[in-house]
Amino acid sequence: MELFFDIAINVTLPIVSIAVLGCVMQARIQLDVASINRLLVYVIMPCFLLHFLASAKQPVSEIWPLAYFTLIQFLVLIPIGWLASNLMGLPRSFGPLMAMATVYANVGNYGIPLVQLAFPPEYILHQSIVTALMTILMVTVGAWLLAPRHTGQGLLSRVGLAFETPIIPAVILGLTLRAMDIRLPHAVATPIELLGATFPPLALFAMGAQLATRTAGDVMPGRLSLVLALKLIIAPAVTWGLAILMQMPEQLADLLVVAAATPIGILLALYCAEYDREPKFMNTAILTSTALSPFTVTAWILLTRIY
Q: Which pTM was predicted?
């Protein structure tokens, strides 16, 4: 129990505190959340990823096991969520919704600050790769699953969506610089580092402000309990099993489990609203999973440290 409270105070409480501050300030001064998110997506996060990838000390060869693990994890968790929806007798429209809620975690705004607090500094590189891959998979496979069949958008057009922001190009550039052992000039690297350093607190603050602008819909307790169990319990448990099966290094396996235990990613709510896939239900699920995350994430960190 002492270890649980130690993790809660030193890891999850700082994360929750900044998010709560964002939520409170949004209610008081009505921040322009859309502009903050654009700043994060188009400037701050690309600088953060570029800095950590380009300045990483690990060889690029360490990235590939993580990349194919993330892809396999994605392909395994999607059918689990879909099957659970079918077994519970939910309407067919909930199948892809439950599938994406199971697999798509808040690995950026929530996950990166979490990794900074709970893991050694070098693991920011790995979490950055997970964030980039999840973004690509969400805007391609995820959007394809959620979109009505009559939209006419093909997979290639959805891949293009991932490149509308500098996030993926920043990852490619960072990895290229690291692979070629090229260091950016100080006059360029320093501004990028300073801008990127603001990402963890600003991302958490923006997440809190964005959650404050969302309203919960009908609770639907049975369906809500299912999606929360899938995201906060089953997804990290399956991820742990996959990591053991694929013989991932122990601390990297711990990181993957903890990342999978983070709340449902907010981007999923945007797609649900765009394609009219139970947007009120998804808002409720995201709000509830985020509210429960201090307890569930702390518990998963504790389990990975004990075992």
A: 0.84
